[in-house]
Specification:
The complex is a heterodimer.
Chain A: E1 2-5, H1 8-11, E2 19-22, H2 27-37, H3 42-45, E3 56-60, E4 63-64, E5 80-85
Parallel strand pairs in A: 1-5
Antiparallel strand pairs in A: 1-2, 3-4, 3-5
Chain B: H1 14-19, H2 21-24, H3 30-39, E1 41-45, H4 51-61, E2 65-69, H5 94-105, E3 110-114, H6 123-127, E4 132-135, H7 140-153, E5 157-163, E6 166-172, H8 180-183, H9 196-199, H10 205-222, E7 231-236, E8 241-246, H11 268-271, E9 287-288, H12 290-299, E10 304-307, H13 311-316, E11 323-324, H14 330-333, E12 343-346, H15 351-362, E13 368-371, H16 374-381
Parallel strand pairs in B: 1-2, 1-4, 2-3, 4-5, 9-13, 10-11, 10-12, 12-13
Antiparallel strand pairs in B: 5-6, 6-7, 7-8
Helix pairs in contact in B: 4-5, 4-10
Classes of the chains: A alpha+beta, B alpha/beta.
């Protein structure tokens, strides 16, 4: 099982959970399991072509999967997958 | 970052030696470091939540020249977190209020005031005077603008961002390090990521993230320690947990990559999908004025008013006639509404309800309108007893 950390802005689409334990052999499989469990998350993570959106990054432990094997990156028991979307709390204009 | 060699040898006055004595007796700063601080020039963009602790600590630390860019005015909702301003400052320019606080803390520093909106037209000119930029604005157009300008000018960009209970910080555009576009090549479409005005923020959070930014700025000036470069610090106040993720410079980055395609500043409102300065006001053809909504209620018209804010916002204030369906729950609860009903959606200011209207139209609802200006406008125009937040 891998631990998936859900960031605050996306928790509303994941039954308000901050952490979900999921199984999967690769990052792609774990994320597929995640969006199967929480269908509303899918469009916030993936574009229409099923690719990760450009303002959402996924880290396996502390490494960006773009610099590993992307969605084919192998996931081991006990690994942590972090979803890190871009955030901006300030309003435009100051 | 190596601070440029001083043009004239700086010294500390007797008063300054006393003021900075806790720095001076510490070998990591010492007289040499304190003089570096005195000769340093830091530009902070925004004197709001992140800018408040930044400005106060940079001034207190003795950063000799601090530029502040802000064109906003202090209002009551700022005071829960923007501690550089006080209740007496409501209605004043943040720039003046911030500069006054900073000079009260430390009259031995110079504050340069820029009463402008940072733009593609003025950013390079403003930035080139300074050693580094600290971005305290925390909005996407300014963030990409600051990033690109810092990359073009090769000046470090000390970044911080906050949302509710979570914050991020790192240093971009440090020689050899990544920039914001390496992390996120493109911004999210407008409306998908809520701002603090919509999503709320724990007042203390910008304090912590702003202090991290100030710490990094001071470390860069001193050239001491390990800068927060190539590492994204994540902070979760609820769990009280700090984490760190690796950031790498992307050789294909359009800004700082090996073959950059961004060689000048662009229109960042357009890049972020926003009309100029229109982030907070989404105009839709189906707007309805709060006064008209009130008339419909009074006439007993058959229509459904839905409040798409969060439950905790509903507890602060609400229109009793309205049915609460938080935006995030709307897809699941859409069957509670009838496609033939006339529906008016409202939120706090009209942004989220515009999204609700779009969603409902896509779901086959034909008669859906957005209450313009949200419950804030309702308080202004219909019922002043409804508190604003």
């Amino acid at each position: 099982m891998a631990k998936v950390l859900i960031p605050t802005p996306l928790r509303q689409y994941a039954d308000k959970k901050d952490t979900v334990e999921l199984s999967g052999a690769t990052v792609g499989e774990v994320l597929a399991a995640l969006t199967t469990q929480f269908g509303d998350l899918r469009k916030h993570l993936f574009n229409d072509e099923g690719k990760l959106r450009s303002f959402v990054n996924v880290y396996l432990n502390d490494e960006d999967i773009r610099y590993l094997d992307k969605d084919k990156t192998a996931v081991k028991d006990g690994d942590t997958l972090s979803i890190v979307p871009s955030i901006a709390g300030g309003s435009y204009g100051g | 970052m190596a601070v440029e060699a001083p043009t004239a040898p700086a010294t500390l006055s007797k008063e300054e030696v006393l003021r900075y004595s806790r720095h001076l007796i510490m070998p990591e700063v010492g007289m040499e470091g304190q003089l570096k601080l005195k000769q340093a020039k830091v530009l902070m963009v925004g004197a709001g939540g992140l800018g408040a602790p930044l400005g106060m600590y940079l001034a207190a630390a003795g950063v000799g020249r601090i530029g502040v860019v802000d064109f906003d005015v202090v209002d009551h909702t700022n005071l829960q977190r923007q501690i550089i301003h006080g209740s007496k400052d409501v209605g004043r320019k943040k720039l003046d209020s911030a500069a006054e606080t900073m000079l009260d803390i430390n009259p031995y520093v110079q504050i340069d005031r820029y009463d402008v909106a940072l733009s593609s037209e003025n950013a390079l000119e403003l930035f080139k005077e300074y050693d580094m930029v600290v971005d305290g604005t925390d909005n996407f157009p300014t963030r990409y603008l600051v990033n690109d300008a810092c990359v073009l000018l090769k000046k470090p960009n000390v970044y911080g961002s906050i949302f509710r209970f979570e914050g991020q910080a790192t240093v971009f555009a440090y020689p050899g390090g990544p920039c914001y576009r390496c992390l996120y090549p493109e911004p999210p479409p407008p409306g998908l990521v809520p701002s603090c005005a919509e999503g709320g923020v724990l007042g203390i959070l910008p304090g912590l993230i702003g202090v991290v930014q100030a710490t990094e700025a001071v470390k860069l000036i001193l050239g001491t320690g390990e800068p927060l470069v190539g590492r994204l610090m994540l902070y979760d106040a609820l769990a009280m947990r700090f984490r760190e993720l690796k950031l790498r410079r992307n050789p294909e980055c359009p800004a700082c990559g090996d073959h950059p395609t961004i060689t000048k500043l662009i229109d960042y409102q357009e890049f972020c999908g926003l009309g100029r300065g229109q982030e907070e006001v989404v105009e839709t053809t189906g707007d309805i004025d709060p006064v008209e909504v009130k008339q419909k209620i009074d006439r007993g018209d058959s229509f459904v008013l839905i409040d798409v804010r969060e439950t905790h916002e509903h507890q602060i204030c609400n229109i009793p006639f309205a049915k609460l369906i938080p935006l995030g729950e709307l897809p699941k609860r859409v069957n509670e509404l009838n496609t033939t009903d006339e529906i008016v959606a409202h939120c706090k200011s009209g942004v989220r309800s515009a999204k609700a209207v779009d969603f409902l139209k896509q779901s086959g609802f034909k008669r859906v309108r957005n209450m313009k200006g949200g419950i804030l406008a309702w308080s202004d125009k219909v019922d002043p007893s409804v508190p604003k937040y």
